[in-house]
User: Fold these one by one.
Assistant:
Number 1:
Amino acid sequence: NYLRDDVKSPECEDLLSSLPSEEDWVPTSLPSEVDCVPSSLRLYQGFWFPSWLLNSVVACQNHFQAHPSDILLVTSPKCGTTWLKAILFALMNRAKYSDSYSQKRHPLLTQNPHDLVPFLEFRLYLQNKNPDLTAFTSPRLLATHLPYSSLPRSVRDSNCKLVYLCRNPKDTFISMWHYFNKLRPEEKGQLPLPEALDKFCRGVSWCGPYWDHVLGYHKASSEMPEKVLFMKYEEMKADPSVQVRRLADFMGRPFSEEELRNGTVEGILRMCSFDNLSALEVNRSGKLPTGLENKWFFRKGEVGDCVNYMSAEMGERIDGVMEEKLHGSGLKF
Ligand code: A3P
């Protein structure tokens, strides 16, 4: 049951009712068969979260104990999480699947990346207030959408590493719009694009404001480059092998001369490519335990697709907001 009984506890009710509220892009919780409840967005610690997620966010903040060897992938929704989960998993496990026989049995061929690298608040702590994580072998690969300032204390205080991936805000916005339209109940129809744009530009989106999410990690990465690796989806698309080598170095598992010679980097990129992953049976017809269909995580996987949906004016509105909010940070999209 993905929505635990204590969602309705007086404590949680008190917290929820004290938080500013906005209409969610999706009017109900995740489509898990068990419990689908109405959703609103709530402003918690400066960021907007779906109301049904808050209990899990708080449980994760209170209970998650980071290990120094943990690697945590952090993103805002729709920035390429699925791709990077696959790449991180493949990087971490490359020794196990190096020969061609093992390659055919690679877990990424039969399991969705979200099952192999689970989210803390959107999966593990949604299921259970204090989940048993002892089954994870070290080093643990986990993921979160939480903003830097809302991370569990132990994540910030321990020596664990964070890989942060962001994406051009216009493409992120268009990807979000498509995705949330899939999550909306049929009878509600699509969320009109101008309405979605207005929410996005006011910062009202899952784990938004988008700019504050990015800025938090950008700052952390410039202050602690050995702890936080800051990556962009567009750079991954433009030169994936350079970025994957950067990732491997950051994880403390650089590619050996032999791996570089025998095409390990290219092999990982081929396996994790949009075309390969999206064509796999598991990603065409499978579902996550939260009720989400695996195929929803693979749409186009391109840079610049926003121009096919947004007018120049709409684009300028996002550009204007981003310019204002990122001013002085040194960060540009
Ligand atoms: P689009 O909607 O623009 O196609 P997330 O994984 O954070 O939910 O992000 C989803 C976005 O990443 C979608 O973008 C999706 O198509 C894209 N994506 C998924 N797998 C990918 C891959 N292997 N390579 C590149 N992009 C991928």
Number 2:
Amino acid sequence: MARDNIRNFCIIAHIDHGKSTLSDRILELTKSVDERTMEDQILDNMDIERERGITIKARAVTLNYTAKDGKTYEFNLIDTPGHVDFAYEVSRSLAACEGAILVVDATQGVEAQTLANTYMALEHDLELVPILNKIDLPSAHPDEVAQEVEDVIGLPCMDAPRVSAKTGLNVDQVLERVVSDIPAPTGDPDAPLKALIFDSIYDSYKGVIVYIRVFEGTVKPGDTIKMMATGAEFTLVEVGHMGATSLTPCSQLQAGEVGYLTASIKTVQDTRVGDTVTLADRPTSEALPGYRQVKPMVFCGIYPADGAKYPDLKDALEKLQLNDASLTFELETSAALGFGFRCGFLGLLHMEIITERLEREFDLDIITTTPSVRYRLTMTDGTVEMIDNPSSYPDPSNIVKQEEPFVDVHLYTPNDYVGALMDLCQQKRGVLIDMKYLDDVRVDLHYALPLGEIVYDFFDAIKSRSRGYASYDYEFKEYRESDLVKLDFLLNGDPVDALSMIVFRDNAYAKGRRICEKLRDNIPRTLFEIPVQAAIGGKIIARETVKAMRKDVLAKCYGGDISRKKKLLEKQKEGKKKMRQLGSVSLPSEAFTAVLKLD
Ligand code: GDP
Ligand code: MG
């Protein structure tokens, strides 16, 4: 394909504004999938992606579009992940494109991710093509939303296509805009190879399939390629284009093109997103800018509910890691929970996705411990320790300085909810940096917040305090000095290491009390009383008691038929399997979850 007829673009939008639906329509209009295989949100392959309506991994697909000018164009549509946890992956996908379609829901207007993604796209000098979506809905007000886009983003929007991704109305206009408004790629096919890795997936037959955008040079099977950040070298087996449902090999990929390569690569660790691919015998002098090694921000322990399933859990994590270079895990043992893993994630959503996949795809019952961020401790001997696990928290008398990660948070909200949200941020130890009116009714609240305070339930809290209208966006800012303590919990006098957490000192008492109450409510009663205590360094700061009593599951089942009783007893047996015997106390996995969900 002549370079002039190539268009590389992505679609950016706030969540639920219709990005996936629009992608589906574009695939249909360009006849890239036959009707038999067409299903909704075809680019979101994982069950979780479809259910939650979010894209977790970047995807790319090559489409052929015959425009109104009679020429055929090669469209490379790159679908980017839609959540703040994956901001780096998004930035690399954007770097692979010349333009972006900006989808704005005409019933909602500009929201947090609309702005955040727009700024990111502008940082990469992408040409933006705004479109107003969902105009089939009676509540759509495209004129006002177009005005809002002009005012808030400064992007001319009055003649933007007004479409319904759902019905397909005017989607053809979007394709014409891609041709007319997004520039063709440039680059010299004879220069040394310079290609950007923007995603990779593991395939059990071909090994890792690496998605690339070629900026300079040409790459073909038989070439020896080199990954510039990791230094790894491979002999190229295949290059080609990604169709919507299959891969199509081709003879070479040239400057300007988007495609895939395979080279019997065993692990995605060798194919870091953002790395530059070049040729081993004729390397480019300079790697593409923007590469960064992604680091996990949130950590927790993951244990099998049934200790015998430890090898299965290990196996499952290894399999997930094949496709996810940002998931880290290492062996961890807990006195309470036995063998398990300390896992690192990009953020809370990433953590939820992994735990959900372990349970669903690998059929494992797991227990997760309280998520923690990574604290920086300076010790009396001058050394600096990074601690993400309460069990490795050192003796406080050896610590001279403690620091915790702070993030920059932007909350975008209608002004009615500003008070409620400021209260929330205050509670979470937020420091207001700035408050800006985006228009008559919308406010951008800019806070610095400790990451540790927002990893649990911040998203839910924002949604409930704003009736779902506010949205947010965050990025790591810096480490700031803090006053932290390790909070321990004792059941029946025995400390349970898996429940320990590192908390801000002023919150320790309230937190200890609340968690003791939660534990009391979630621990099944037994024939004897169970004291539940919270402690800081051996000093008890809160206490509750689980009263003695045997729970009779049949109590409510007078008379009735025997099969119902059997069912209840079966259910109780099931429940027991999920429990952990901690000393003399059984702790159901729900107790661990309940502890996390403190509001
Ligand atoms: P994404 O999160 O941006 O990928 O959004 P989706 O494409 O998953 O769309 C979110 C929801 O909006 C889904 O329930 C879609 O069916 C719906 N939706 C998307 N586009 C339209 C549209 O043009 N009209 C209507 N009525 N609903 C739409
Ligand atoms: Mg989507």
